[in-house]
Design goal:
By secondary structure, the protein is mostly helical. 67% of the residues lie in helices and 0% in strands. Helix 6 packs across helix 7.
Length: 250
């Protein structure tokens, strides 16, 4: 829809505010360390890694409330699998597979390959929960805006949701770099979902931000995983384009 007198008439800002309030308030206790599940229930065999998923509980809960409780009328362009189920599944499997093969060092002295699997699987769910909020709801809710406006709104809200500005150990430079990565990520993920319509594919790409920046300093492994993932994703995006053309033109 084109703007009328410089304004967009059909963006439901109140609904976006409700979604965002849920996303922030539900995630905040876990993101700020106010609730530390591992001290309440310590899980064996490295399974405490799955507690990280709770930090992303807000966005997916906001998505569920908006579409299944409030029942907003926002049209959903993106779905779990999108254009192709097999393409999306292969996309999400790349990083966990590589992390399992290469392994991840850990303080619990667990087998590095086992821990690589546990660690990367947990972050898959973390990224998926986030993506259901940012791409599953928020991107859809502002779909009528120009690209630069969508990037601006999603980036600011996504950056603020992390609540890192409340953590005194982070420097201004770190905040600036984080915001830059958020902007680039928002742009890239909009492009990915426009191509694939897939929240799962977006989750796979999201992992490069949430997972590969935290592999216990093993930069060589990050590079191998990232390089492999990019090559596979480029191939899968080309396959996705062929599937789209086939569906359109028969």
């Amino acid at each position: 829809m084109k703007p009328i007198n410089g304004q967009i008439r059909r963006i439901k800002w109140k609904e976006i505010a409700i979604f965002y309030l849920i996303a922030v308030c539900v995630s905040a206790p876990f993101r700020l360390g106010l609730v530390k599940m591992e001290t309440l229930i310590n899980l064996p065999n490295g399974l405490n890694a799955f507690y990280s998923v709770l930090k992303a509980l807000g966005p997916i809960l906001g998505f569920l409330v908006m579409f299944y409780v409030i029942r907003v009328k926002t049209f959903r362009n993106n779905s779990f699998y999108g254009t192709s189920k097999i393409v999306s599944i292969l996309a999400i499997l790349v990083i966990p597979t590589m992390m399992t093969i290469l392994g991840v060092q850990n303080k619990s002295n667990l087998n590095i390959h086992y821990y690589g699997f546990i660690y990367s699987t947990a972050y898959c769910f973390y990224a998926l929960f986030e993506e259901y909020g940012w791409r599953g709801y928020l991107q859809e809710a502002v779909q009528q805006l120009k690209l630069i406006e969508k990037i601006g709104i999603i980036s600011v809200l996504w950056f603020t949701w992390h609540l890192n500005f409340l953590l005194p150990e982070m420097t201004l430079k770190q905040h600036a770099l984080h915001f830059l990565f958020i902007i680039l990520g928002t742009f890239g993920l909009i492009k990915i979902t426009n191509k694939t319509k897939s929240i799962l594919f977006a989750t796979a790409v999201h992992l490069t931000f949430n997972l590969l920046t935290d592999v216990n300093g093993e930069s060589n492994k990050r590079l191998i995983v990232l390089s492999t993932a990019i090559v596979v994703w480029i191939i899968l995006l080309n396959v996705n384009d062929k599937i789209l053309k086939k569906n359109i033109y028969g």
